[in-house]
Amino acid sequence: MSKIFKTADILIPQGCDMKKWSVVACDQFSSQPEYWERLESEISGAPSTLYLMLPEAFLESRDQFEQAEKINAQMEKYIKDGVFTTIKNSYIYIERTLKDGSLRRGLIGALDLDEYDYGKASKTPVRATEGTVEDRLPPRVKVRSGASLEMPHIMVFVDDETDALMGTLSRQSQNLTKLYDFELCADGGHIKGFQVSGVAADAASDIIEGFSDKETLRSRYGDLAPAIFAMGDGNHSLATAKKCWEAIKPTLSAQEAREHPARYSLVELVNIHDAAVEFEPIHKVVFETEPQSFLQEAKAFWAAQNKDGACHTLKIITQNDCEEIEVCGLMIGELIGKAEDFCQSYMAKHGGKIDYIHNDETAIEMGARSGCAAILLPTLGKGELFPSIIKSGPFPKKSFSIGHAQDKRYYLECRKIK
Asked: CA distances (Å), 411 to each of 23, 86, 184, 186, 329, in order?
């Protein structure tokens, strides 16, 4: 079995309305409490993952300590009431049909937190892809530190160009035991899950172990310490699990630390090259500024960054201009970081406010308004993510987006962590 990613005893509900059970990740629709209020009304007390987490839309309006106690009590009640059945020593292969009809495939398993470090200088096999905002962790730590269960909305990328893992599982799926097959609530699309155990699990583990092959990694990334697994989504949840584990570990013997369930976090492994994985740039729009001054300073700033190496093209948008600028010699993570540095430095001197915009057309329209300017950043290529985090560390926050909110991972499977 893979040391870093392995099978687990996974809990899934039995005898429940699965459409009510499974809801989207807590960090989605954070500015739309009405989305969550509507879900509460529709679920109306039925067994649901909605009662096992705190939506970030309510962080300011609900008492976090009180909510953590309610969540942990609800977990214990679901265990006592026999809500779960245990899928022992298995992976779960996922086929998620998104709202646009594309199919995203994943594999649920347990990731070793001792092999993960979300720090900027991390050299561990499991890496963060974006900077971790420490202020976002305390509410999550409150819940997890007292929790008997975990449930993942964490997606972790592997760089599997030949589609060895998911391709094999997809071809085997007709011979695997189907665990669930249902329509997700609130435009989440459709999901199927299949148990991967025994010989099939061993074969999957062998493929995953192959991702650590030293010669393959050296040919891809050179002699730098490689990242074998990179966060796709849910970095703050994995960081929370890491902080909780680091608090527990000093209280354990060496043997207990090797076997303790809190050492691992349940995640969904996804191939970065999956056709349904799409990266979208997050652009920067500065309001209440002087556009021509912004444009001239931006051109001078980017001219000073150029050096030998691969090039990326970004655009500066103002009311009267759309200027393309080619920047060479920077990893794309470095380029995004420098764009943020420029905007913050510019606003410190000249004033202004910044916002982060996902859609190209919206960013162009906003940048072209009077008193505004925008930097349109290039799209992250799938082949750029791993080399960039290996060579220059995690991307800055608000660097890129992976799909729409309703396409994020829904809570469904659980695992005991006590």
From this structure: 6, 16, 10, 13, 41
* Residues above pLDDT 90, as percent of the chain: 83
Segment (H or E) for 357: strand 353-357
* CA–CA gap between residue 331 and residue 311 (Å, rounded): 9
Tallying the residues shown for the chain, one arrives at 418
Query: In the numeric block, which tokens belong to residue 163?
Result: 């589609």
Residues 409, 155: contact at Cβ < 8 Å? yes
pLDDT at position 2 is: 52
Question: What DSSP string describes 206-217?
Answer: HHHHHTT-HHHH
Task: Give the model confidence (pLDDT) of 310-344 as tens digits.
Answer: 899 999 999 989 999 999 999 999 999 999 999 99
List of residues 6+ apart from 223 with CB closer than 8 A: none
Beta strands at 126-127 and 116-117: parallel, antiparallel or unpaired: parallel
Contact of 327 with 312, CB cutoff 8 Å: yes
Contacts of 397 (CB under 8 A, 6+ apart): 130, 131, 133
Q: What is the rounded CA–CA span in Å between residue 180 and residue 14?
A: 10
Residues 6+ apart with CB under 8 A from 387: 220, 221, 331
List, in sequence order, every beta strand (DSSP E) within 241-340.
Answer: 264-271, 279-281, 283-287, 311-317, 322-328
305 touches 382 (CB < 8 A): no
Neighbours of 255 (CB within 10 A): 8
Helix residue spans in 211-303 (DSSP H): 214-221, 235-248, 254-259, 291-303
Mean pLDDT computed over every residue of the chain: 94
Give how far Cα 83 sits from Cα of 36, 46, 51, 71, Å. 23, 11, 13, 15
pLDDT tens digits along 283-303: 999 999 999 999 999 999 999
CB atoms within 10 A of CB 52: 23
- Cβ 161 vs Cβ 219: under 8 Å: no
